[in-house]
């Protein structure tokens, strides 16, 4: 029996804190994981995992063993990938969650290009804005926009976005054009997530409280409401599509806009990252570094 048998399963259990979640990560059965760890404990003559009906925790010996093994396995994975670079035939399912108009229009097409280069690889996309549990839901990584909360996740920037304020010619004709950010308090504003909008005024950042008839977390809804003359919107310029160029909307307050948005690749803060996920992330990063939007 190989001295390495059971170590991959043990590391997965240690990092996911469960046999079922470890099995999902490794794409094997729960019984397979349990059997491999039991065999590993039998060979070592010591318990590594403390099992209960509610949770799985490492024993003191298990913690020490994990800390020694994880670097070895991670190093072995990297060595294998280096030696087989350009020869890896990726297969299986790449599960990605994405949110935002920029992700759908600009990021996902690049990801589809990556999938097209690997005939045995399947892409599964889930569009939502919530923070997901990468382990429990088996997502490889997420595409997210905006400021990210502090967490134990890794976030790598894909692109920065300039914000603009815009309204329809009809709205501006009926209600006037705001001259300063403070004027927005007297206007109908189309709100997405937050009703406090940051601007730059006299080289300082100020926040203006806004309200209006429409509030939605859908970029397309905001743009449609804006085109319908229902108010002023403040979003990344990429979210407005070609509505500015074709004069469906007009920009306002151009001297006060604040660059405050970024699109990120987010994934779990763990050393265990599949080759397909790592290569897809590298592909996206290289593409956006070469062609920033």
Q: DSSP helix count?
A: 8
> Which word captures the global form?
elongated
Major sheet description: 5 strands, mixed
In round numbers, the mean pLDDT is: 83
The secondary-structure class comes to alpha+beta
Spatially, the strands of the biggest sheet line up as 4-3-5-12-6
Explain what you see:
The protein is α+β, with helices and mostly antiparallel strands and 293 residues long. α1 (7-16) crosses α3, α1 packs across α4 (60-83) and α5 (101-116) packs across α8. Helices cover 36% and strands 23% of the residues. It is elongated, with a radius of gyration of 25 Å. It has three domains: 7-83, Orthogonal Bundle (Arc Repressor Mutant, subunit A), CATH 1.10.10.10; 92-161 and 262-290, D-Maltodextrin-Binding Protein, domain 2; 163-258, D-Maltodextrin-Binding Protein, domain 2 (3-Layer(aba) Sandwich), CATH 3.40.190.290. The longest helix is centred in the first third of the chain and has 24 residues, at 60-83. The chain is built from eight helices and twelve strands. The model has no long low-confidence stretch (mean pLDDT 83). α5 (101-116) links the parallel β3 (92-98) and β4. It has helices at residues 7-16, 19-26, 30-44, 60-83, 101-116, 169-175, 219-227, 275-290; strands spanning 49-51, 56-58, 92-98, 121-127, 141-145, 153-161, 163-167, 196-201, 204-209, 233-236, 250-252, 261-268. The strands form four sheets. A five-stranded mixed β-sheet has the order 4-3-5-12-6, covered by helices on one side. A three-stranded antiparallel β-sheet has the order 10-7-11. Strands 1-2 form a two-stranded antiparallel sheet.
């Amino acid at each position: 029996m190989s001295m390495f048998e059971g170590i991959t399963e043990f590391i997965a259990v240690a990092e996911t804190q469960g046999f079922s979640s470890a099995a999902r990560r490794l794409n094997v059965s729960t019984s397979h994981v349990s059997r491999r760890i039991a065999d590993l404990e039998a060979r070592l003559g010591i318990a590594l995992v403390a099992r209960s009906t509610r949770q799985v925790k490492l024993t003191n010996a298990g913690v020490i063993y994990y800390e020694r093994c994880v670097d070895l396995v991670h190093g072995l994975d990297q060595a294998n990938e280096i030696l087989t670079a350009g020869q890896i035939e990726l297969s299986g399912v790449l599960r990605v969650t994405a949110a935002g108009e920029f992700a759908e229009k600009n990021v996902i097409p690049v990801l589809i290009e990556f999938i097209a280069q690997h005939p045995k690889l399947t892409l599964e996309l889930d569009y939502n804005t919530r923070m997901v549990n990468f382990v429990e839901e088996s997502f490889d990584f997420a595409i997210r926009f905006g400021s990210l909360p502090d967490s134990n996740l890794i976030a790598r920037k894909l692109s920065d976005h300039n914000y603009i304020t815009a309204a329809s010619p009809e709205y501006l004709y009926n209600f006037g054009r705001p001259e300063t950010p403070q004027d927005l308090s007297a206007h109908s504003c189309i709100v997405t997530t937050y009703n406090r909008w940051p601007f730059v005024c006299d080289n300082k950042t100020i926040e203006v409280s806004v309200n209006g008839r429409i509030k939605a977390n859908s970029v397309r809804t905001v743009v449609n409401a804006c085109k319908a003359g229902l108010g002023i919107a403040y979003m990344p310029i990429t979210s407005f599509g070609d509505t500015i160029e074709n004069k469906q909307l007009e920009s306002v307050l151009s001297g006060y806009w604040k660059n405050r948005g970024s699109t990120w690749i987010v994934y779990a803060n763990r050393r265990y990252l599949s080759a397909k996920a790592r290569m897809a992330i590298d592909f996206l990063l290289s593409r956006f570094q070469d062609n920033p939007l």
